[in-house]
Write a structure and sequence with these properties.
The protein has about 475 residues and is mainly alpha-helical. Helices cover about 75% and strands about 0% of the residues. The protein is globular.
Length: about 475
């Protein structure tokens, strides 16, 4: 790793790369509908609190591990405590597995961008979503393949491409979103949306569900456990200020989410649409608005282009790079590793493009319970490693070049408080599934957790068997 070409040349490139990787569909799809459903501006209060107390403080785990060991998830875990190396492999499985499906969703977003060019004229948005999500149109296949092809190119070029892409896509995306915000604010009746998004009803904060949903959004948006923070931080500069860069990346991710709200809420209130529409807000509600909006073809195209940009950056960082960097550490050349993941993504993606019922495996098994187990594994290897003290990471990595000082309290926070929060989220998921029956209960309740545990055990067995008697290469 001595080659300078393997490191980010600029702090801006690193920050944009990480913040864009976190800022995916969850920011422009899940965040706005949660805001709409759980109190508008009031939801932002617990959300912003958790961005710092949960998102940023926990992100430091992955950043510290990446910079200290300069390796992927598997080798970093191995070097810290070989007993936990298989948990690093599981983290790779979770992240890379989720993105196989995520690439398909990115394809949906790009498909909508092209449909927007006709202002969705003569199209029933609900019927269009059913058609696209069933993989029944040629544009879906083309957009999905294009997403994988671009990701293949960027990752194949290595960290130089990440640095350049981050510094280009990040600012361009901000400009596009500002243009869309200006358009939404000019619509008659948009002020009601502004008031909904800026004037909190503090009484709503008495509801525990508002806090738990804000917590889960932060956790799945910028929390640790995905492996991309570790992977990209492994290529940070030697004197990188980890606390400042991680905080800036967390706030960058949050900025994209909040800007998405400024695009969506003034527009939906201008057209008299209920803000609590839920998941349909992105792919059904917004096309309905663009159908009736002056200049809807242009603004619809720009909107879904933004959605695709956010999804694309997650595909080549979360999925491709986490997998490829791990394979490089195991002695596989980057070109071959990129090709291997592309083949895996093509085969796996075909299942989802053809609308297989297995999508719940990604949404719930990996995306929820798998991520929870991945995070607990990260806590185990950082805070409970044999003959290793988390204090070492705090002193040698986090505070060495940091202008923001992280005190010793952080050690106990990671050891005890943060795992307790993760367990709380798990209990909430199990509690939330209590009213389900049959297959749904098995998928989203205890059965889902058991399947995630089975995947974890399988990953541990396969990795230990494959590496028995040898060490992870450098």
């Amino acid at each position: 790793m001595a080659d300078k070409e393997k490191y980010f040349k600029t702090r801006l490139g690193l920050i944009f790369s990480v913040s864009l990787s976190y800022a995916g569909l969850g920011n422009i799809w899940r965040f706005p509908y949660l805001v709409g459903k759980y109190g508008g501006a009031a939801f932002l209060i617990p959300y912003l609190i958790f961005v710092v107390t949960i998102g940023w403080l926990a992100m430091l785990l992955e950043w510290a591990m990446g910079k200290y060991y300069r390796s992927g998830t598997i080798r970093s875990y191995y070097l810290r405590d070989r007993r936990f190396a298989s948990l690093g492999a599981f983290m790779c499985v979770v992240s890379s597995g989720i993105v196989i499906y995520y690439a398909v969703l990115a394809g949906y977003s790009l498909t909508y961008a092209f449909y927007s060019l006709t202002s969705f004229k003569g199209i029933d948005p609900s019927a269009l979503w059913d058609k696209i999500s069933a993989g029944a149109t040629a544009p879906v296949w083309i957009a999905w393949i294009a997403t994988l092809a671009i990701s293949y190119y960027v990752v194949n070029k290595g960290v130089k491409a990440f640095d350049l892409a981050g510094r280009i896509i990040g600012p361009v995306l901000l400009v596009l979103m500002i243009i869309l915000i200006a358009n939404s604010l000019r619509l008659p009746g948009s002020f009601e949306g502004v008031r909904f998004y800026t004037k909190p009803n503090f009484a709503i904060l008495k509801e525990p569900i508002v806090w738990i949903m804000a917590l889960t959004q932060v956790f799945w948006s910028i929390g640790p456990g995905w492996g991309n923070g570790l992977t990209l931080a492994a290529r940070s500069r030697e004197k990188e200020d980890i606390p400042f860069s991680a905080l800036t990346a967390a706030l960058g991710d949050t900025t994209y989410a909040i800007l998405a709200g400024w695009i969506i809420f003034p527009a939906i209130f201008a057209y008299g649409i209920t803000p609590g529409k839920g998941p349909s807000l992105l792919f059904i509600t917004m096309p309905t608005i663009f159908q009736h909006m002056t200049g809807g073809a242009i603004f619809g195209f720009l909107f879904f282009l933004c959605v695709w940009f956010l999804a694309l950056t997650s595909v080549y960082t979360f999925g491709y790079e986490v997998f490829v960097f791990n394979m490089e550490n195991l002695g596989v050349k980057r070109e071959k590793a990129v090709l291997y993941y592309t083949i895996i993504a093509l085969i796996g993606g075909l299942i989802f493009v053809l609308k297989s019922p297995l999508t719940w495996v990604v949404d719930t098994i990996l995306g929820c319970y798998g991520l929870i187990l991945s995070v607990l594994g990260l806590v185990a290897v950082t805070a409970w490693a044999k003959n290793k003290d988390i204090e070492e990471l705090r002193v040698k990595i986090i505070n060495r070049y940091g202008e923001i000082y992280i005190g010793r309290w952080w050690n106990n926070y990671i050891k005890y408080v943060f795992p307790a929060i993760v367990i709380l989220i798990t209990v909430w998921f199990l509690y939330d599934a209590r009213g389900l029956t049959g297959v749904d209960y098995w998928s989203y309740g205890p059965g889902g957790l058991l399947i995630a545990l089975s995947i974890l055990i399988l990953s541990m067995l396969v990795f230990r068997s494959g590496r028995k008697g040898g060490e992870v290469s450098g």
